[in-house]
Write a structure and sequence with these properties.
Elements (H helix, E strand, L loop, with lengths): L4 E6 L5 H13 L3 E6 L1 H11 L10 H5 L6 E4 L17 E7 L1 H8 L6 H11 L3 E6 L6 H12 L3 E2 L13 H15 L14
Parallel strand pairs: 1-2, 1-4, 2-3, 4-5, 5-6
Helix pairs in contact: 1-7, 4-6
Length: about 200
């Protein structure tokens, strides 16, 4: 089913924990996850999450911390991957975290790996593309590329946690960003981040 397929790419920006939490929730909902992890992201995951992944045999179980359901992992250099075809139907794609190198490459039509190519296909097919940059400060070049992508109907969703839900832990802040991603994709979730009027 189209609404049960989603592409998730993890690139080499700080914020691997956002990817991990998103994957855990999608896995709980038994959505088919088509996962691509860049070379740089593998290093970030080890540094930030303490999870050492085998580059030649990435373990979804290790990354998610639980038994994976329907997680399909692709090598970023695999040009025969189905996710780079417009005929591969999905509900969209999330790049989380999204490095500025990835964002700028996609904005300028550079398709040097299957992450960028899948993002390009997602846009051309009119599907939802969510980019989650975690970089600060940003330059005029970054902003111009974000605007270019927003004009192409991509969702620029920076990892900017809010405070109106009275977070008590770092996990609450992580969940805030992940809930925003799920909301944009119209995926039901149980994370309570709704604004309560005083």
């Amino acid at each position: 089913m189209i609404d049960r397929n989603i592409i998730v790419a993890v690139t080499g920006a700080s914020g691997a924990v956002y990817a991990q939490r998103l994957l855990q929730i999608l896995n709980q909902k038994q959505i088919n996850i088509h996962l691509v992890i860049s070379e740089s992201a593998i290093d970030v995951i080890e540094h930030e999450l303490g999870i050492k992944l085998d580059r030649n045999n990435i373990s979804a179980r290790k990354l998610l911390g639980t038994e994976p359901h329907n997680v399909f992992i692709y090598n970023p250099c695999d040009v025969n991957s189905p996710i780079i075809s417009g005929g591969f139907k999905t509900m969209g794609m999330v790049i989380v975290p999204c490095s500025m190198n990835s964002l700028c490459s996609i904005a300028n039509g550079i398709a040097s790996n299957i992450i960028y190519r899948a993002a390009s296909v997602t846009l051309k097919e009119g599907r939802k593309l969510v980019l989650v940059p975690r970089e600060t400060p940003v330059t005029q070049i970054h902003l111009e590329n974000m605007l270019k992508l927003a004009n192409a109907q991509a969702c620029i969703l920076p990892a900017m946690p809010g405070f109106y839900h009275n977070p008590k832990t770092i996990d609450d802040q992580i969940d805030f960003v992940v809930a925003k991603i799920l909301d944009y994709l119209s995926i039901e979730h149980e994370i309570n981040i709704r604004y309560e009027h005083i």
